[in-house]
Each structure stands twice: as structure tokens, then as C-alpha cells.
Design goal:
Layout lengths: L5 E2 L2 E5 L7 H16 L5 E6 L5 H14 L3 E7 L2 H10 L4 E5 L8 E8 L7 H16 L14 H12 L9 E5 L8 H8 L3 E5 L18 H10 L3 E5 L6 E5 L4 E2 L1 H12 L4 E4 L4 H9 L4 E4 L3 H11 L3 E3 L5 E3 L8 H15 L3 H4 L8 E7 L10 H14 L4 E6 L5 E7 L3 H18 L2
Parallel strand pairs: 3-4, 3-5, 7-8, 7-9, 12-13
Antiparallel strand pairs: 1-2, 2-6, 5-6, 9-10, 10-11, 14-15, 16-18, 17-18
Helix pairs in contact: 1-2, 1-4, 5-6, 8-11, 13-14
């Protein structure tokens, strides 16, 4: 049975519209309250990013929890990995993060963590879904529960992050782009507390500017500021701060693949777990160290599942989700920045020097928004365009066509020898998808 509410990263949609309307969010809280009651002490921690819809969604979840006899504790503005950390290390059976990650402010979402700090397995999400639909059929009247945030939660999380860093950032000039999101206050406090001179951008959330031309998906402003300030490093996070994209002092973009390469050189793992999106250049570089790359489907949950199954400690996505299982149960942008900066400062090397053996293959990603989703195998013209690209590039390229797990998008990724040829092939496939899906 496929899931109808939960995608690859929780429940996500437009705030106020099903499945993130008041009734469904309240039913979600009630279903989760019943779930935690069967798994121990019914205490749940709730956190949110800076979207204007966050407070009412948090109160609706808390109201549903109360309806089921569970108690909500409110961390207020915090990061997704912060909620995972609190859920695992404190007396909570579950944690809920209210965020739509890198999406625009109109969207929001519900991510659930169990006491082990990991997102719920698919089967547990299916159980929650069935109970949510049953509760909606009972026509519950939502009764939101007022919440007051406890700043001690963020203090505990910051203390944990600081404890993972060995050394000092004194003398380091660092530009942070916090995407006007969850890291807006935690990020500058964390790095300034370690001695860095912090220049903050994207640290002025107003409820509607989260991810707006800033953060991990829009690093041009960060790059320009790093160069203008003659900073040593730049770091950009997304709305819920589980991603990190870095910028070197020379302006080079350091994505998740680069971060995993830097970490692998230092930690020397038996393998690194990436996704089908990881660049071929990263695969060549990591294999040059004698370290194999294991690829999974796109989504940090699939990376983590493979890491746990095979016992590997470093994994992540090109997009900036990097998982260090020694420290955390999910991707953590702040932790990623700490790990990379610690390695760079200890070795006395720049990010350019640490990634000099990574020669990226030109890669083009095209998104096609659709109204009616059709299986790609039912579109002969699309299949023909994919085959033509694979035949042209052979071992010197790759083609990946998939549907987004969080938005109504088909994504086309093509890698190859030159950007001109890659872009042309990617667009040709995208055009056929657009025609095939009307």
C-alpha cells in the first residue's frame, strides 16, 4: 500500500490547504498522540522554522496530541536536526518538525522522528496515515493548544554542536547565509562562540522571506559576499538547516559531494554512501582514494537506511544533506560546516586545496512541473530521448529522470563531457516530458 499523505520527507504541501489544513493537521496530532501512547511516555517535542504558518500548525499538532492524552513540549524556532537530536537525547517518544525545508514560505510540512532520532519507517507512516483518515471520518472538531517555547532546547542543541568541534575558529572570517530560516539565530551564535568573525546574511526572517533568493539553493549572494569581505569561508543553509553548501575563499562552490570527499580523506571510511545524483567526478575522486561509492535513490532517508544496513558512517547528497552517523541521525547543515571547517583549519588547507582532485562533470538539472502525472515508461518519446542521450555519452555520462517526492515535478539530470551537449540533451528530454504530460 502506497502512502497518500507522507512523501519522501514527511507530509508537505501548501499551508492551510489539505493535507496541511487545520482539520488534517489536528488529526495528525491526534494519531501521533495515540502512536506515542503505545510506545512509552507520551511526550512529544515540537519545533518549527520561520514560516508564518508555523505557529498555528504547531498549536494544531499540540491540540491533537492533547486530544489523545499526549503532552507537547515546544522548542520554538529550531532546525530539523535539532529536533532529531532533542528527540533522541531527552525524554521524548517522538519529535515533530514543522518545515517545508527548501520550499517557499507558502508551503509547510510535518516531519516525524522517533525516539532513536530517525525518521519513521514507511510502515509506521502508513499506520499513522490510516489512523489520520479514520479520525477525519469521525469529524473531529480541532481544538488548538497554545504553546510557549522553551529556549533551553536550543541551548542544549548548541552545546552539543560545540562539543563536536575540536580546536578554535579564532582568526577565521566566516560569512553565514541562514536562508532567513531555522538557523538564523542559532548559526551566528554557534560559530561566533567558537571564535569566528561572523558576517551574517539571510538572518532576518519575517515569515515570508525564508529561502527567498538566499540560502543553500541560491548561493550567488553568499559567493559575492565572501569575495567582497575577503572571507576565509562561506556557509549557506536551507530553511530547516539540514543542508549546507560551502564557498571557499576563492569563491568555489563546495556542495555535498565535495563535503563528503573532504570528510572521507580525513576519516578514511570503508565506503561512502551517496545517491544517484552524486557527480561522476566525485565518484572518480573517491575511488581514487580506494573508497567505493554506494549509490541510493534520492532522499536522505534512503542514504541513512543504507548506512545503517551496511554499517558505513559517512553519506549524503550533492544537495548538501551530509550525514555523520558518529554524531547525528540525520543530515545537519551546521554539523557539516563544523566538520569541514575543523578539517580545513587543523590541516591548514583551503577548501580549494582539499578538493583539488575533484573534477566535476558538467551536469544539468531541468525541472518540469506537471498537472497530471503519467508513468515515464508510458511515454515512448521520452524513452527514446533518454536512450539517445545514453548512447551518445556512453561511460562518459549519465541520465537520470525521476519524479520529485515533495513537489509535482519531473526532474531530468544529465551529465556528460561538455555543458553545451549536456544542456541540449537535458532540454530535449524535458521537452518530451512536457508534451507527454500535457
Amino acid at each position: 500500500m502506497s502512502r497518500k499523505l507522507f512523501g519522501t520527507d514527511g507530509i508537505r504541501g501548501v499551508a492551510g490547504v489539505a493535507p496541511l489544513d487545520l482539520r488534517t493537521v489536528y488529526a495528525f496530532g491526534a494519531a501521533l498522540g495515540e502512536w506515542v501512547a503505545h510506545h512509552g511516555n507520551p511526550r512529544v517535542v515540537i519545533g518549527m522554522d520561520t514560516r508564518e504558518s508555523g505557529p498555528w500548525i504547531a498549536e494544531a499538532v499540540a491540540g491533537g496530541l492533547a486530544h489523545a492524552g499526549a503532552q507537547a513540549f515546544f522548542a520554538g524556532l529550531t532546525t530539523t536536526p535539532g529536533v532529531a537530536y532533542l528527540t533522541k537525547t531527552e525524554d521524548f517518544v517522538a519529535g515533530v518538525m514543522i518545515s517545508a525545508s527548501h520550499n517557499p514560505f507558502q508551503d509547510n510540512g510535518l516531519k516525524v522522528f522517533s525516539h532513536d532520532g530517525y525518521k519513521l519507517p514507511d510502515e509506521e507512516e502508513r499506520k499513522l496515515e490510516r489512523r489520520i483518515f479514520a479520525l477525519l471520518a469521525e469529524d473531529l472538531t480541532p481544538e488548538p493548544f497554545p504553546l510557549v517555547d522553551d529556549p533551553a532546547f536550543d541551548r542544549h542543541y548548541i552545546q552539543f554542536l560545540r562539543s563536536t568541534f575540536h580546536g578554535s575558529l579564532r582568526g577565521v572570517k566566516l560569512v553565514l547565509d541562514c536562508a532567513n530560516g531555522a538557523a538564523s539565530f542559532i548559526g551566528p551564535e554557534l560559530f561566533a562562540g567558537l571564535g569566528a568573525e561572523v558576517i551574517g546574511i539571510g538572518c532576518d526572517p519575517n515569515g515570508r522571506n525564508i529561502n527567498l533568493n538566499c540560502g543553500a539553493l541560491h548561493v550567488d549572494a553568499l559567493r559575492e559576499r565572501v569575495l567582497a569581505e575577503k572571507a576565509d569561508f562561506g556557509a549557506a543553509f536551507d530553511g530547516d538547516a539540514d543542508r549546507c553548501i560551502l564557498v571557499s575563499g576563492s569563491g568555489k562552490i563546495i556542495d555535498g559531494d565535495h563535503c563528503m570527499l573532504i570528510a572521507a580523506k580525513d576519516m578514511k571510511p570503508t565506503a561512502v554512501v551517496g545517491t544517484v545524483m552524486s557527480n561522476l567526478g566525485f565518484q572518480r575522486a573517491i575511488e581514487g582514494l580506494g573508497i567505493p561509492l554506494i549509490r541510493t535513490a534520492v532522499g536522505d532517508r534512503y542514504v541513512i537506511e543504507e548506512m545503517l544496513r551496511s554499517g558505513h558512517t559517512i553519506g549524503g547528497e550533492q544537495s548538501g544533506h551530509v550525514i555523520f552517523l558518529k554524531y547525528a541521525t540525520t543530515g545537519d547543515g551546521l554539523l557539516t560546516a563544523l566538520r569541514v571547517l575543523e578539517i580545513a583549519t587543523e590541516r591548514g588547507q583551503t577548501l580549494d586545496e582539499l578538493t583539488s582532485d575533484f573534477v566535476a562533470y558538467p551536469q544539468k538539472l531541468v525541472n518540469i512541473r506537471f498537472v497530471t502525472k503519467r508513468p515515464l515508461e508510458d511515454l515512448p518519446a521520452v524513452q527514446a530521448a533518454i536512450r539517445a542521450t545514453e548512447e551518445e555519452f556512453g561511460a562518459a555520462g549519465r541520465v537520470l529522470v525521476r519524479f520529485s517526492g515533495t513537489e509535482p515535478l519531473a526532474r531530468v539530470m544529465v551529465e556528460g563531457p561538455t555543458m553545451e551537449r549536456v544542456a541540449a540533451r537535458a532540454q530535449a528530454i524535458a521537452d518530451e516530458i512536457a508534451v507527454g504530460m500535457g
